[in-house]
Amino acid sequence: MFGWIDTVIQGILLGGLYSLYATGLSVIFGIMRLVNLAHGDLIVLPAFLMLALVGVGVPIVLALAIVVPLMYAGGYVLQTVMLNRVLGRNILPPLLITFGLSIIVQNGLLEGFSADTRFLNVGPLQSASLPLGGGIAFGIMPLICLAAAVAVIVLLNAVFYRTAVGRAFRATSDDVQIAQLMGINDRSIYALTMGIALAVCAVAGFFLGARSNFDPSIGPARLLYAFEAVIIGGLGSLWGTLAGGIVVGLAQTIGAHLDPEWQILAGHVAFLIVLVIRPRGLFPRAVD
Amino acid sequence: MSIDGSNSAGLSAAHSPGSRFTVTRATPASTITLLIAVPMILILAALPAFANRTLLQELFYVFTMLALAQLWNLLAGSAGLISVGQQAFVGTGAYALFAFTVVGGLDPILSIMLAGVTAGVVAIPAALIVFRLRGAYFAIGTWVVAEVCRLILAQVKQLGGGTGTSLPPDVASSMIGLDFVRNLFTVRGPAARDIISYWLALVLAVGTFVLVYRLLRSRYGLALSAIGDSEAAAESTGVDVFRTKLFIYVVTAIVTGMAGALIFLQKARISPDGAYSLIDWTAYVIFIVVIGGIGTMEGPIIGVAVFYLLQYYLAALGSWYLILLGGLAIMLMLFAPSGIWGVLSRRLDISLFPVRRRLVGPLKHSAGEQNGES
């Protein structure tokens, strides 16, 4: 019995990490209907950047503070230089550009850091846990990760719903032509969007490295978990994305509890089941 | 719709009875191409009589990749179904071949056919699920399906589980026609097996080409280009969008499964990671199609030649080779999204395998002006 309670708690905590993976993807899709196939690799990339910074003696928190704006700038440039040039009705060019980017990042990391498995050392907090009695314990790091996932969503929702620039984001998302008539430059909104999404990727990359091992090849799997969380949650709702992340996390830990080899498969199967019974996700907001 | 798949028959523009405008699909270039293609295929078929084994093995790879590229091109370029999960059907076909031969004890060539059927059967429920996703999300959905297949096959201990298994030597040596080939060319068993595999790959490549070409020139081709322009408009003119897409998806899966079975019959070794490899069976294939020219019959042929040369000279660079391919794909999408053939055919105004209908009028220059899609 305690085993099951523990499994559910671990699943919810894992869901926090998956929600962080998915938030960036959800924002880009919500605002510019773009799917970034390099999303997973752009979570692994900042983890390696922080690893490199820590390697030259930068404290881990400072490394995070450097990499987040760096990824923001990278996203802004990526959108301005490449993706804004191919926006339009044909979805193939942006899809293939991000696919190419995924292969470049993955193999670039492989060249730069080798295929070895790494982790980010965040000090004594890493393995600390909060005992709950009955052999159940919260890991402190997973708990901080879930809190960070919630904080990111609260922050983004505050930006989207309480600021002028947030209004511009929502207007562009609702109807780009009318937004342009109102004097909004959609291209710069898109650039900001990609910047924000990759900044969130940097936070996700930090927790990826702090919670578990990583190597250059694990990006695509993170993309799939993120994608599943977005679809399960329903397009256009960040709280839905959090719920979706928790569903994937729960499915994986429950699957692993039954048989360790079923962990990943159980997450995918949960996604397919939701797609069959609730094709628009659990909390749909956007019409498309 | 009264348009059939016949070769070049012009159907007269019915609106004004006296009009001298006609709709045609053949071009002088396409007629010449057909006249050249037939002897070329015959020469390729006779190649085992004088070529060495290495050349046959290289051509085997080229032919199978060409078939996969034509199939992906049919899905993405014509039906707008951009899949990054075709490895689902390559892998399923490959595993079905191993199951039918190793566990079922059937003949390998018969098993290739059955492997295609198996892939088609898997494609139906897969389609019903992923068709709920649109556009780019459809693409990732197909990838999830491929991952599910990979993870399930990794659990099947009879087929080697996660580490994979090899094809027992007696399976390959029991192939139909092996003795015939051995006597015909006076070669040993392994070389005879390569020759049969080469022929099968040639049949697969030519067969896939003819299948896709005929499909695109049939009413399905018209329906697909209508869907590509606007699903709602296509639906309103009587095209059953869902059934058309499902048909194309399943046909593609069947032939992709057969290609997968053939590829892994030749490899004689299978593992979940190899059979369901995103890079080998989808990324390379997409690269071939986009560099040659998506949405054209000529594109994959040019693409596979370019890809083969790059692979031949640069594959030794390892991950730098992949970085180069990724960079090339990005540059292509930014500066020449229609690929090599797209640029060439626009400049030269030629079409070797025309699938479009052209309006040809009595004025001399009208053919040149009105060669857009009709």
Walk me through what this model shows.
- The complex is a heterodimer of chains A (288) and B (374).
- Chain A is mostly helical.
- Chain A has a single domain (10-115, 137-277), classed as ABC transporter involved in vitamin B12 uptake, BtuC, CATH 1.10.3470.
- Chain A has helices at 2-32, 41-55, 60-81, 92-113, 140-162, 164-174, 176-181, 186-211, 219-233, 238-258, 263-277, and strands spanning 129-133, 136-139.
- In chain A, strands 1-2 form a two-stranded antiparallel sheet.
- In chain A, a hairpin with a 2-residue loop joins strand 1 and strand 2 (136-139).
- In chain A, helix 1 runs parallel beside helix 5, helix 1 packs across helix 9 (219-233) and helix 2 (41-55) crosses helix 3 (60-81).
- The longest helix of chain A has 31 residues, at 2-32.
- The radius of gyration of chain A is 19 Å and the shape is globular.
- The model of chain A has no long low-confidence stretch (mean pLDDT 91).
- With 374 residues, chain B is mainly alpha-helical.
- Chain B has one domain (17-364): ABC transporter involved in vitamin B12 uptake, BtuC, CATH 1.10.3470.
- In chain B, 68% of the residues lie in helices and 3% in strands.
- Chain B has 17 helices and 5 strands.
- Chain B has helices spanning 28-46, 53-78, 87-103, 108-130, 135-153, 169-172, 178-185, 189-217, 219-229, 231-236, 241-267, 272-275, 278-292, 298-314, 319-335, 339-348, 366-369; strands at 11-12, 22-24, 165-166, 269-270, 358-360.
- In chain B, the strands form 2 sheets. Chain B has a 3-stranded antiparallel beta sheet with strand order 1-2-5, with no helix packed on it. Chain B has a two-stranded antiparallel ribbon with strand order 3-4.
- Chain B is globular and about 65 Å long.
- The two termini of chain B are 15 Å apart.
- Residues 1-15 and 365-374 of chain B have low confidence and may be disordered.
- At the A-B interface, helix 4, helix 9 and helix 11 of A face helix 5, helix 13 and helix 15 of B.
